[in-house]
Design brief:
Elements (H helix, E strand, L loop, with lengths): L1 H4 L4 H5 L1 H32 L2 H26 L4 H24 L6 H22 L2 H4 L5 H30 L1 H19 L16 H12 L2 H16 L6 H7 L6 H17 L10 H21 L3 H29 L5 H30 L1 H22 L1 H5 L6 H14 L45
Amino acid sequence: MISRLLPDLSPWRSSADFRLLWIQGLVTYFGSFMALIALPLQIKDLTGSPLAVGAMGAVELVPLVVFGLYGGALADSADRRKVILGTEAGLGLLAVVLLVNALAPDPALWPLYVVAGGVSALAGLQRPALDSLMARIVPHEQQTAAAALNSLRWQVGAIAGPSLAGLVVAYAGHATAYGVTVVTFGLSVVLCLRLTAAPPARDARKPSLRGIAEGARYAWSRPVLLGTYAIDMAAMFFAFPNTIFPFLADELDAQWSLGLMYAAGSVGSLVLGLTSGWTSRVRRHGLFVVGGAAGWGLAIAAAGWFDDVWLVLLCLGFAGAGDMLSGLGRSTIWNQTVPDELRGRLAGIEVLSYSVGPQLGQVRAGAMAGWTGTRSAIWSGGVACVASVALLSAALPKLLTYDSATDEDAARRRAAHADRTGHAPESDAPPAVEPGASPAAESGVQGVSLWPVGQLIGCVCPISDH
């Protein structure tokens, strides 16, 4: 019974590429979260304004939209290894800019916004190249397990990074935190150099507006995909209060808890990840998306109501678990239904769905906090999140009824994967296993020789990640 709750390690066993990417990403997350904490804290220290902190979202929004869509088309037409290496090196240089500015006698404010915009642009270029590869390096029926393991990796970095970053910034200063970020980016570039080439398909077309529009039309024509995008954007827009956590810590007279606030959601996600074995046997992934997003909103609303900092941290932990559950559903649906020739462009739209929401959410939270107060900005956003999820679920009922075993798009994608790898299509129905045996051990999936490339999501300094 316990073995069925433990994470499904099938992707780890079946793909050497997946193992490499998992380890590499863990290294990068650690340093990236240092910058995630240090940057808004430095803006707060320089301005004392929640609106100035929230303005980061506005600065990041346009580059993310433009370069995210272009990056999706680029991922379908260029060597993804080169795209990753180029953007990774650029992100490392931006971390150096933060370090140099922090070491100056009088650090300036404007470079922080310039770096935030630059990070957003490079993230938009890089993320589609990364995200579009997961469907290739992991067998179709192991996508949920892979998403759980990747999320587990993220949570480990998200817990250790913010917790240590709060202490580093408090006792060693912003410059030290940025210095750690620079070192981890350097290590990441070295690891990326070990990856093999990931060339585009022979008939791939150059990036164009027509190609981007083709991907957008496909997404618009699929109510299930449309539902995953819309619900995630709504949840993050209304209930992403991370940018005003420094002010919440002040109001609760618990400045020491700031790092824990940033890490609490990851603790909740980690708990869910460590008990995620059951998710590999579920086929109704749309219910994950809806239920997880609604749970996220309820927990954020509760966090805004409580005066006790420990109850606030507990609520943020529950919010993180809801966010991870919704993310597992989104990732599985995307990787199980999107055709390979559109993966890059659809990944570009995915970047917008899970990144534009937080950017606008930062602006909303900062402006609302300046107008009505920090606490009301948090709880009202959580309530609005739940309401929007309910409305979108009613408007897009196919998301709630999605079943990976019967969905036509999932069946076509499963057959295409089988043709490419030479494996017979396997049903997504829960496998029959002997009592006490791991479902991964019974999957019968052999290793797949596909393009190895870095799933370096954390290499993108997660100023704009969630």
